[in-house]
Amino acid sequence: MVIKALRKEFKEANDKYYNNVRLVHKKKGLERHKEEEARKAEYEAKPADYEKEMAKIHRFQEEMDLCDALVSFPKKYTPRSSRSSRTRSPRPPPPPLSWTA
Fold first, then answer.
1. Partner of 84 at 20 to 30 A CA spacing, among 22, 44, 55, 64?
2. Number of H helices, E strands in the chain
3. Which of the two residues, 10 and 71, has the higher pLDDT score?
4. CA distance 38 to 49
5. How far is it, in rounded angstroms, from Cα 77 to Cα 35?
6. CA 30 to CA 37: how far, in whole Å?
7. What residues make up the domain containing 29?
């Protein structure tokens, strides 16, 4: 009978310990799930932010920069006297973009 009482006491203490361990694991799992959801939301928001930034730039800005580079490159190798005779006025700014179709 003494052994049964000791065994019962040990089992109760053991159950209490492992119940606490299970609660700790469950709590960590919930925290990990919340962090994962936050990371997922942040990851999904990045393309939208990128699109907003790209919308601010003129559609053909890359091509315009390339043309400017192609025009300015030969200027380094032309004589100074011919540069002054062929000067142009600066290009006017592009018209504002209209996103409505």
1. 64
2. 3, 0
3. 10
4. 16
5. 58
6. 11
7. 1-51
Burial 17-38 (b: 16+ CB within 10 A, else e): eeeeeeeeeeeeeeeeeeeeee
The tens digit of pLDDT for each residue in 73-82 reads 888 888 777 5
Residue 28, helix vs strand vs coil = helix
Q: Is residue 69 part of a domain?
A: no
Question: Residue 52's pLDDT is what?
Answer: 86
Which whole-number Å values give the CA distances from 64 to 37, 58, 74, in the listed order?
41, 9, 17
The number of domains in the chain is: 1
pLDDT digits (tens, 9 = 90+) for 56-94: 888 888 899 999 999 888 888 887 775 555 566 778 887
pTM > 0.85: yes or no = no
